[in-house]
C-alpha cells in the first residue's frame, strides 16, 4: 500500500477549491455581495471571513476589503498575491497532471495510505529473485582431476586397443584377459564425461557409451567365437557412438546406473596398477621424465580420477576412513606429479611417485590381502 505525501494532499485541496469556484460560477449566475461564505464550523470575526486553509492572513484580509470580483477574474492584490476570483492562484500547480502521476513517497511520510488511494494505485509487480544454480553437496570437480584432453585421450587409447584386439578371432583370443579392463576404463570415463564441465564432443551420448562398455563385462569374456561376436558388436556400437553416429536401435541406458554398476572395483584397480607401473618403468629417469611429459600427465590424471572414483558411495567404501585415506593420498600424489611436470622438477616427481607406490602397497595389505 502506497503512502500519501504532501503533494497529493495539496493537489486534492486545489482541485476541490477549483471545482467549488466553477460550480458557483456556473450555477449562481452572479456572486453574493457579501463575499465568499464561511465554511461550516469556521468562526467569523467582526464580519470578516476567517483565514481559509492555504490562504495567508494578509491575503484573506485583502480579499475581503477590496471590490467585488467575478469568479473567473484574474487580479493581483496590494501584497502582490494573484487571484482567480476569490481563490489565490498559489493553490494551483503549474503542471497538475505531472504532480498527480508522481507516486514518490517522501521520507517521513505515513507508512499507510487510505484504502481509496491504495485501490487507485496498482502495486508494482514483484520480481522473483534470480535463482543461482549451486552444485549438489559432494559434487566432484572433475576438471581439477583430469582435463578433457586426458579424458578423451584415455577413451581413445582404450578404443584403439579394442579395435586391434577384436577385428580377428585370433587376436581376440590372445587379448581376452585385457579386454575387461579396457572396457571398464571406457565406462568410468564416459561416466566422468557426463559430469565434467569441459566440452566433450560425445558427451550427450556418454550414457550410451557407458552402457555398451558395461555390457561387454556383463558376462565372462571367454575365448570362444560366440563371445567374440558379442563383444565385437558392442565395440562397433561404441565406436559409432563416439564418432557421433549412434545406432538408432540402441537400448535406452538405465538412468540410475552408478560407477559400481558399470565398472567393478577390481577392474578399476587393474587400470590403477597399470598407471603406476607405467610411470615407474617408462618414466623412471631424468631423460624419460623430460621426454614423456604427455604420457606422465595422462597416467597421473588417470591415477587421480580413478582413485577418487572408488571413494564414491556406490563402491561402498565412502564411510571407510582408512580406505578413503589411502585413495586420497594417491589423489594428492597424482596432483603433485603434475605439479612437478610443470616445474620440470624430477626429484619432486620421484617423491610423489614413491608416495603413490606406498599408498597402493599399504591399501593392498589392509584390504586385498585380508
The backbone outline, from C-alpha atoms, is: elongated
Q: Please, how many helices? A: 16
Give the spatial strand order of the biggest sheet: 1-2-3
Give the structural class: mainly alpha
Whole-angstrom Rg: 44 Å
| Beta-strand share of residues | under 5%
| Helical coverage, percent range | 55-70%
Number of strands: 3
Number of domains: 3
Query: Which sheet architecture does the biggest sheet show?
Result: 3 strands, antiparallel
Give the SSE order as H and E letters: HHEEEHHHHHHHHHHHHHH
SSE layout and pairing:
Elements (H helix, E strand, L loop, with lengths): L5 H23 L28 H9 L8 E3 L5 E3 L2 E2 L7 H6 L13 H6 L21 H4 L2 H19 L2 H7 L3 H17 L10 H11 L8 H18 L16 H4 L2 H18 L3 H6 L1 H17 L11 H23 L2 H23 L2
Antiparallel strand pairs: 1-2, 2-3
Helix pairs in contact: 6-8, 6-10, 6-14, 8-9, 8-12, 9-10, 12-14, 12-16, 14-15, 15-16
